[in-house]
């Protein structure tokens, strides 16, 4: 599984673990909701600063999203 | 320290631990040497697929480069 698919799977799993909708997650990470949806479908190749914001919102290390 | 600075510091440290020049590292990661130099100066905001290739070349988890 490549890093984009790992990110998609981990984002969805960790978001749902928090009980957040994509809208809630988008608001917390200060990222557009459609971009969250694209990320969770493996349709984006984000930069590390975007992934860092996602990890901060989820309160996990970046490695938990990418490894 | 933000994620771009953490990447810069970790890349340089892990590359030097391997005893590689930037040229050697660029060849192994299949990335242009000047891009490696830019990354180590914190002058780039790479995508996760680029960081994944860097981690593979260094044989470390991506979290070791970004956390």
Automatic annotation (TrEMBL), chains A, B:
Write down the InterPro entries for this protein, in alphabetical order: Cro/C1-type_HTH, Lambda_DNA-bd_dom_sf, TransReg_Diox_bact_type
Keyword list (alphabetical) reads: DNA-binding
One molecular function GO term is:
DNA binding
Do you know which SMART domains this protein is assigned to?
Answer: HTH_XRE
List the PROSITE patterns. HTH_CROC1 (PS50943)
The HTH cro/C1-type domain, residue ranges: 11-65
Q: Which Pfam families match?
A: HTH_3
Q: In the UniProt record, does the keyword NADP occur? A: no
Superkingdom, natural source: Bacteria
One cellular component term (GO) for this entry is: cytosol
The transmembrane segments are: none
PANTHER family given for it? Answer: HTH-TYPE TRANSCRIPTIONAL REGULATOR (PTHR46797), METHYLPHOSPHONATE SYNTHASE (PTHR46797:SF1)
- What is the protein name stated in its UniProt record? Transcriptional regulator
Which species does this protein come from? Tardibacter chloracetimidivorans
